[in-house]
């Protein structure tokens, strides 16, 4: 894609569009990768603690708990009904008592002996209501005692079930460890090839016409590996994560040191080459960009100038920086294709600097 640098403003606008294409392509790949990595745990049934219980004992305890829950529910329902009946009985008893007291006051005023049978009837009615009220209270007390017994039994069974959980926990932890490791390995088998392919594309295909799409794949691969995969990295006390972090840091450091040394070796070898060969390997746009940044196109070092003078040669590698037009003798940048004074073409321009 180096040809874009030579077409000015339209080229920069087009490059911006290609970057947008790369980012959009990366977003879609990241979304797909996120779905794949997130759904990989579904390839196995989740490990549950109950799978490692003594099956017979666990079944007995769970059956007992189920029976207790059912009985307790029935008792609670019955208690609610009886308590409502007791409230109604207490209301009736209170109303009857108040009515009886009012009637007694009236009878004491009239002293009518014919009301004696009614007195007995009203007394029996109130006594019957009190008897019914006491019976309901007895029923409630009995139900509450049964509820207390069932609750105590439920606590015993739950303690036994908790002990069963504790006995099964080591086996559960081992199984969970291997399952997490298997799932993480599957995720790694998805993310690692993407990252390796991305590295290969960066190293081998950066000059391809389809680099914008490849660049989107590279961005997505880096994101999937270092953002989507890392949260799923097993963390057993932090040892795995710190160990992986150390390995990645060492690998990155080794990679950077090797490439820095290779870069320095290449630069030293380039500086030993003849100037015509070094100029042939430089692109026109890259050379002008470095000159504008006051950087030598031949060795990448800063251009050294004394008292504001513009040097004709690099003091580090001897590269020609400024020369004179062969037509009008005007001083110009040695990498210009045409003289900025008379427009005459520069002499001895290598084919590589033409584009």
Write up what this structure looks like:
- The protein has about 350 residues and is mainly alpha-helical.
- It has helices at about 10-40, 55-110, 115-205, 210-230, 240-270, 275-280, 285-290; strands at about 320-325, 330-335.
- Strands 1-2 form a two-stranded antiparallel sheet.
- Helix 1 (about 10-40) packs parallel to helix 4 (about 210-230), helix 2 (about 55-110) runs antiparallel to helix 3 and helix 3 packs across helix 4 (about 210-230).
- Mean pLDDT is about 80; it is low at about 1-10 and about 350-355.
What would you say about this model in short?
The protein is mainly α and 355 residues long. It is 69% helix and 2% strand.
Give descriptors for this structure:
355 residues; mainly alpha; 2% strand; disordered N terminus
SSE arrangement:
Blueprint: H1 8-39, H2 55-110, H3 116-204, H4 211-229, H5 239-272, H6 275-281, H7 284-292, E1 322-324, E2 331-333
Helix pairs in contact: 1-4, 2-3, 3-4
Average pLDDT reading:
79
Approximate shape: elongated
Structural class: mainly alpha
Distance between the termini: 11 Å
The unreliable regions are 1-9, 349-355
Radius of gyration: 46 Å
The largest sheet, given as strand count, sense and whether it forms a barrel, is: 2 strands, antiparallel
DSSP helix count?
Answer: 7
The H/E string reads: HHHHHHHEE
Strands of the widest sheet, in order across it, are: 1-2
> Beta-sheet strand percentage?
under 5%
* Secondary structure: number of strands: 2
Multimeric state? single chain
Percentage of residues in helical conformation: 55-70%
């Amino acid at each position: 894609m180096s040809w874009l640098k030579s077409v000015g403003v339209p080229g920069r606008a087009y490059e911006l569009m290609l970057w947008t294409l790369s980012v959009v392509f990366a977003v879609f790949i990241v979304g797909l990768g996120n779905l794949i990595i997130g759904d990989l745990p579904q390839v196995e049934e989740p490990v549950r603690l109950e799978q490692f219980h003594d099956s017979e004992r666990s079944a007995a305890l769970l059956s007992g708990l189920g029976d207790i829950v059912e009985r307790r529910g029935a008792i609670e329902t019955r208690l609610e009904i009886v308590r409502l009946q007791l409230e109604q009985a207490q209301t009736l008893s209170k109303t009857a008592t108040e009515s009886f007291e009012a009637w007694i006051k009236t009878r004491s005023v009239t002293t009518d002996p014919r009301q004696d049978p009614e007195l007995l009837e009203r007394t029996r009615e109130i006594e019957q209501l009190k008897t019914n009220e006491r019976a309901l209270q007895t029923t409630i007390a009995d139900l509450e005692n049964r509820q207390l017994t069932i609750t105590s039994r439920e606590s015993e069974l739950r303690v036994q079930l908790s002990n069963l959980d504790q006995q099964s926990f080591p086996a559960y932890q081992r199984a969970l460890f291997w399952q997490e490791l298997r799932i993480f390995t599957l995720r790694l088998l998805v993310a690692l090839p993407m990252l390796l392919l991305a590295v290969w594309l960066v190293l081998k295909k950066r000059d391809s016409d389809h680099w914008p799409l490849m660049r989107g794949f590279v961005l997505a691969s880096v994101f999937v590996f270092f953002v989507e995969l890392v949260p799923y990295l097993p963390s057993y006390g932090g040892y795995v994560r710190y160990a992986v972090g150390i390995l990645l840091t060492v690998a990155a450091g080794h990679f950077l040191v090797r490439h820095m040394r290779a870069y320095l070796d290449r630069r030293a070898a380039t500086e030993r080459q003849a100037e015509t060969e070094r100029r042939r390997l430089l692109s026109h746009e890259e050379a002008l960009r470095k000159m504008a940044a006051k950087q030598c196109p031949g060795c990448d070092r800063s251009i050294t100038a004394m008292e504001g003078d513009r040097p004709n040669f690099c003091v580090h590698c001897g590269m020609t920086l400024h020369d004179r037009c062969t037509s009008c003798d005007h001083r110009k940048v040695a990498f210009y294709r045409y003289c900025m004074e008379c427009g005459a073409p520069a002499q001895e321009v290598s084919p590589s600097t033409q584009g």
